[in-house]
Amino acid sequence: MLAASLACSVQVPPSLMATVFPSLTQLADTPLPPATQPAAGRPTPVPTAQNTPGGPATAAPTALPTLTPVATLANRVTNPQEQELENLYARVNPSIVSILVDLGAQGGAQGTGFVFDTAGHIVTNQHVVDGATAIEIDFPSGVKLAGKVLGSDPDADLAVIGLQGDVGQLTPLPLGDSDQVKVGQSVVAIGNPFGYAGTMTEGIVSGLGRTVASNRAAPGGGSYTAPDIIQTDAAINPGNSGGPLLNLSGEVIGINKALESQTGVNSGVGFAVASNTARQIVPYLIQNGKYVYPYLGMNAQEDISLALAQQLHLPQANGVYVAGVVPGGPVDQAGLKGDSAAANQQLHGDGDLIVSVDGHKAQGFSQLMSETIPNPWWSSPPARPRPGGPAARRAGSCPARPTLRPRAAPAIRRSWPASIPPRPA
Question: What angle do CA 162, 230, 153 make, to 5 degrees?
């Protein structure tokens, strides 16, 4: 066994070791011959280090390359827009919360909200907290508190949560004036898509004055309409529900509500409730737990194309064509006439055409809703009667919308369900 061990070992004398592995210090100290100019017809000699007797020749060492320092977070250069976004996020994110909802036997869900005032009221979407048996509010600071729904509005898809406990000093997010928002304006959305808390996405306002169906059914099988919706291409995904859509000044101009998608993930078309709608409704939700809307009691054509205007013999291709009225409703009492066609049948063209409300042009149904919904009373809706139809009359005050059961979910949803289940730890 010892012989086998020795046979496998090789003893190398120190002199030979120095020959095979010359000292780097020795090579560095070895003087090099001076450079020579090439003579005509003779090659330039290549300098070599001193050879160790009996050992191989070694080439002269080369100088180490000079390394260029890599940019770090401390010395990198940022452009002004990037710095603006960084500052915006640092300023507003502490006031944006993650909402964990216990739905009992249905499981759980997750959404987003933001601090509305120093009293600890959190604003979010109604569909985030719908059916909640327990609510947890998580702040970016790590503070976690229980929450209680104080009021909700399924038509505007808004809800207010009260904090159960002391969170310390709160910084509310300011509400901007959504009437001043312009298409093309830069915006950011901050929320918890797919459970990833504090996610910020950037985009622009891509449309204004949109309408989406509310979360309640209307008489006759239709649905109420939520007006004055802001459209954005900032990425909105499940979990962003109830989070703020902000301008670059850090003002909330919308509350992210829904996305237009066949798959349930962002397609570049997201919707947000306008901040001026929230400004009007949220105080009522805090004080009374609900908001009472005016009720028109009519069905209308969403848009009038040139072909439809020609088919119905309308004098113009804009306005609101009254496709049907609810018997005894405000519009019926005002003397406006709906189309005589039965439901789901081709229109006959004998309904009235509303062209303005209180002197404001109503170019389409969404604009009509924007003019009437924010105001508690609908007084004097001028209408252009059809030839042979009733004359326009003044309408009295509008009663509240009737209370009905929640609208059944359609086969293809415009908005995601009450957000998403929270990610496992």
Answer: 35
Mean pLDDT of 345-353: 87
Catalytic residue, candidates 155, 157, 233, 352: 157
- Kindly give the pairing relationship between strand 186-191 and strand 244-246: antiparallel
Active-site annotation holder among 241, 261, 356, 415: 241
Catalytic residue among 127, 223, 366, 415: 127
Instruction: Give residue-wise pLDDT tens across range 283-297.
Output: 999 999 998 877 778
| Domain ranges within the chain, ordered by starting residue | 80-164, 178-276, 298-372
Select from 2.40.10.10, 2.60.120.260, 1.10.60.10, 3.30.365.10 the CATH code of 80-164: 2.40.10.10
- Confirm whether 241 is a catalytic residue: yes
pLDDT at 401 over 60: no
Q: Does domain 298-372 have CATH number 1.10.3210.10?
A: no
pLDDT at 231: 93
Strands (DSSP E) found in 192-315: 199-217, 223-232, 244-246, 252-259, 270-274, 298-300
- The mean pLDDT of 164-183, rounded to a whole number, is 92
Give pLDDT, residue 63. 74
> Which pLDDT does position 51 carry in this prediction?
54
Can you read off the two tokens belonging to residue 54?
Answer: 């009996």
Q: Is the CATH code 2.40.10.10 the one for domain 178-276?
A: yes
